[in-house]
Design a protein that fits this description.
alpha/beta, Rossmann fold, 6-stranded parallel β-sheet, 10 helices, Isochorismatase-like_hydrls
């Protein structure tokens, strides 16, 4: 049986022109209208022995999935997010931290979805704590959410508008859940989005790659950590906006 020939994506050119191949990505860096959004880099989602990775036999993630996930986190994602955070800080760009945390100890304010999943990070709990390697510094903004999508469940859009943020670099976990939802929602709200593919991961390589394939050339520009840092170093002045930057399209 012959393998069918893949059908070309007829919408790819217009999406690439509108959301990927636009110099506005770099103009926003030059004018300091870009922020780094770090999604769920907390114990609940990213520490062995916590949340869905508890060692009490209740984890739905297989041993193979856990090994893959934490290997990716520890060897690739956490070092890359740490580098990106420091690069944004050096250039006086906003670093914003999003985490799952309820308003109440019993989680009665959680979304219906999180209640159905029995997912709770109470205020002050270990699950709500950020991983030390990528934790907030100084007065960096923290946004608490109780749903997969940060834009649908918080005032993040209002906060970003107040600060003049027009573009986002997105990193975090899980690629196929909270990260993908955030990227799609941000694009729909008018932000130019750059997803750092080696700054994200999930519990299987197939799920990670499926999200990358869906988002690429549609809702965001997808780059590596090295490419992201190179763009920031080229276009964003450390001391503040450079309104005279010479920016070319991709």
């Amino acid at each position: 049986m012959e393998t069918p020939t893949p059908t070309p994506d007829p919408l790819r050119p217009i999406y690439r022109k509108s959301f990927v191949q636009t110099a506005d990505h770099f103009q926003n860096l030059a004018h300091h209208h870009t922020a780094l959004l770090c999604i769920d880099m907390q114990y609940l989602d990213a520490a062995d022995g916590y949340g869905l990775f508890k060692n009490d036999g209740s984890s739905p993630v297989s041993a193979e999935g856990r090994d893959y996930y934490f290997k990716q986190l520890n060897e690739r994602v956490l070092p890359n997010v740490h580098q990106l955070q420091n690069c944004f800080r050096r250039h006086a760009l906003e670093v914003i931290h999003v985490r799952i945390q309820a308003l109440t100890r019993d989680g009665r304010d959680r979304s219906k979805g999180h209640k159905r999943l029995n997912l709770l990070a109470a205020p002050g709990s270990g699950d709500a704590c950020f991983l030390e390697a990528v934790a907030p510094r100084g007065d960096e903004i923290i946004i608490n959410k109780t749903a997969s999508g940060v834009f649908s469940s918080t005032n993040l859009h209002y906060v970003l508008n107040n600060m003049g943020i027009e573009a986002l670099f997105v990193v975090g976990v899980y690629t196929n859940e909270c990260v993908e939802t955030t990227v799609r929602d941000a694009c729909d709200l008018g932000y130019l989005v750059t997803m750092v593919e080696d700054g994200c991961t999930t519990v299987t390589p197939e799920l990670h790659q499926a999200s990358i394939a869906t988002l690429r050339n549609r809702y965001c520009r997808i780059v590596t950590t090295d490419e992201a840092i190179a763009d920031i170093e080229r276009y964003a002045e450390p001391s503040g906006p450079d309104t005279g930057a010479d920016v070319d399209a991709i």
